[in-house]
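Suppose you are handed a protein chain with no further information: no name, no annotation, nothing but its sequence. What can you learn? This example shows the usual starting point.
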Amino acid sequence: MMDSNYEIEVANLQDKVNFDEEIIYKVVSFVLSEENIDEAEISVALVEIDEILKLNEEYRKISQPTDVLSFLYDLIPYISGEIVICPEYVKEQALEVGTSFLEEFVMLLVHGTLHLLGYEHETNDKDAELMWKRQKELVEKFFQQHNIS
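A reasonable first move is to predict its three-dimensional structure. Written in structure tokens, the prediction is:
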């Protein structure tokens, strides 16, 4: 797995949830590699609930917080984009669905990365089915290959 052409930056702009940020580099690199992406520049911002609410209102016209947003900046000559995640929201969501914070966080990071790679679930059922299937495959494979708990 060659990931030397991946530039992944993390900006932790929140202080509500503490965790090892190294997982972000591992997950994003893993998805890019599995999707045969040769070169990418991706930033991941961890934000507070009020910030993700503001972004969701501005870019999606939805007046409520969300767990993850993806912003694709460029496809040529390589993938360039940003993933914004709200760890506090992720933690609440994990409790609601009965998974661990780590499982939910990894799933959402895979989800956000797939969006940057062109996967979509809001356009039609066929695209949604493809994205959910690929997301599930990648999350399962990630946890199988990495001893993370």
